[in-house]
Amino acid sequence: MPVVTCIEDLKRLHKARAPKMFFDYCESGSWTEQTFRENTSDFDRIRLRQRVAVDMTNRTTASRMIGEEVSMPVALAPVGMTGMQHADGEILAAKAAEKFGVPFTLSTMSICSIEDVAEHTTKPFWFQLYTMRDEDYVRRLIERARAAKCSALVITLDLQILGQRHKDLKNGLSAPPKLTPMVLADLATRWRWGLGMLRTKRREFRNIVGHVKDISDPASLMAWTNENFDLTLDWAKIAKLKELWGGKVILKGILDAEDAKMALQVGADAIIVSNHGGRQLDGALSSIRALPAILDAVGDRIEVHLDSGIRSGQDVLKAVALGAKGVFIGRAYIYGLGAMGQAGVTRALEVIHKELDVSMALCGKRDIKEVGRDILLVPEDFAGRWAS
Hints:
Radius of gyration: 20 Å
Number of helices: 16
Helix content: 40-55%
Largest sheet: 8 strands, parallel
Structural class: alpha/beta
CATH superfamily: Aldolase class I
Number of strands: 12
């Protein structure tokens, strides 16, 4: 097994082992990819304050996210097509997360279904919902998540319309992939991936196929999906979805303080400060730069999480020190999955946890719940000065 010391190591292995279209799907943003790049580079602008002669024994990264105990304040984010990065990808990632003691979030656009993941895990996971125009399908999807004993519904708010991702269009992204000459040439060098796919029956969007009429092939599936995102989604509909679910609700895709206040009004349990990994509105602020203003607006009246840009334990530490109660990782665990399956997801979590633990200690803290802004050096202009 290759020596993996950082997430970048897993990324290199992922690129070598997964088909190009699926690696590109993971490693891309919309339009010019400015926001995609700044999601990570803006973390570099924040510095940590080293403290010395502090007792570093008995450290703990244990915390809570929406009342659930976690081994560190990190959850696996919902990522579409995870089962195309590695055979049975969602199942493997969920099993790794459960064993490590962090939440797993299943995407509506997963390859493995809600039922598939529930069958192979023993603890509740979270389910992410894309709102569709087909209200009956959405209602049945929520009922399936409830039957699987999912402990939270994560409603994505920033994908009513699909941002253009150039690489996906050029690669002809689909699940399963269309066997064009270009794709076949690529797959010929990805034999490990191909063998895994031959051994599994899960190669299509199983939360949709069999649950929607007139879906007969990948083309009709992609067309139905792209045409069915609910353009009319508003706060009244979000409130109705929360009522229909009846359990804990996390709203994902908040990037503005005013929207954070609206999330409070509809009674969400938590929000995720997120720009969809830079895959929707290019030119938007990075999540870490948007976080301070949102925290100023809502304080501790709602639990605030963050995703987009987390690639290390130090990124986790910086987000928590700024005030986030937890973070979601997407690409970081997908790199591991594409590189080495379940073992790769576990390795990604181990890498992040070790760096979080050591960096926290070197900043003079022994308990992640005691970490605050006092361990950071934040540029005065970090949030930006914008003309009104």
